[in-house]
Amino acid sequence: MVSVHRFFIPSDWIEEDRVSLEGSLVHQLSRVLRLRPDDRVIVLDDSGWEQEVILVHFGTDRVLGHVVDKRLSSGEPRTKISLYQSVLKGQRFEFVLQKGTELGVVEFVPMIASRCIMSSLDDVSRKAERWQRIVLEAAEQAGRGRLPRLRAALLFPRACSRARRQGGMSLIPWEEEHQRSLKQVFNDGNNNEEGEQQDIRPFSINLFIGPEGGFSSEEIEMALGYDLVPVSLGPRVLRAETAGLVAVSAILYELGDME
After folding, report:
1. What is the pTM of this model?
2. Residue range 145-200, pLDDT digits in tens
3. Count: domains in the chain
4. CATH number for position 14
5. Based on the domain organization, do 200 and 103 belong to the same domain?
6. Residues 28 and 89 both lie in one domain
């Protein structure tokens, strides 16, 4: 089966069953992908719905299409994970954005912890446009129905405060935690007072991932004050760009989002 190209577009480009594709997308469709009338694409307006469109006309500044099917996207997880990822050097943070989007992260919060090599909020903000483009392209490729939100960067204390205000379960993997695993967190939460299993899935999870060198003990103490729960990701030490992806995968598997 030939895969159909997917594109996030502004909602006002869609009017009932007519679609007008504009800007740089015209060049991509006609020159890069070499699509022609009667070819099909899927357009997404970030609502969770996807619309299959048959292309009917190619102009110099716009491509016109006709909607032939509309359906709810199947690429969004039930569990909403916000990834508070400490900023990493080089292209490692971009790798996390790309793969995290593919896995199903719904929100990225760049975070500056004490051991981050990049420690300036201004330096981080200058990368936002490129990072947003990476998220967009990954979401289109992965079959997502909504674009993950890329938030403004926060210092660690502000990130902890935001997570508490947002609500949900907040987890902070830490290499010095040897008692509580991810699996135990979810199993303990699903046991009632009599020890019986009950199916209670957290709707949202805030996941905090440290930089190269990990979180400091002082940051963990601060996190505890904001009700973050330290957890272990196992006996092996994971790189900073790997830990979040492993944790996201484990959480979605444990909660049935990989089925």
Report:
1. 0.91
2. 999 999 999 999 999 999 999 999 999 999 999 999 998 998 876 554 555 555 56
3. 2
4. 2.40.240.20
5. yes
6. no
Q: Mean pLDDT, consecutive 10-residue segments, the chain of 259 residues? A: 86 96 96 96 96 97 97 93 95 97 98 91 92 97 96 97 97 94 82 53 93 96 97 94 97 91
**Three-state helix/strand/coil letters over the chain:** CCCCCEEECCHHHEECCEEEEECHHHHHHHHHCCCCCCCEEEEECCCCEEEEEEEEEECCCEEEEEEEEEEECCCCCCCEEEEEEECCCCCHHHHHHHHHHHHCCCEEEEEECCCCCCCCHHHHHCCHHHHHHHHHHHHHHHCCCCCCEECCCEEHHHHHHHHHHHCCEEEEECCCCCCCEHHHHHHHHCECCCCCECCCCCCEEEEEECCCCCCCHHHHHHHHHCCCEEEECCCCCCCHHHHHHHHHHHHHHHCCCCC
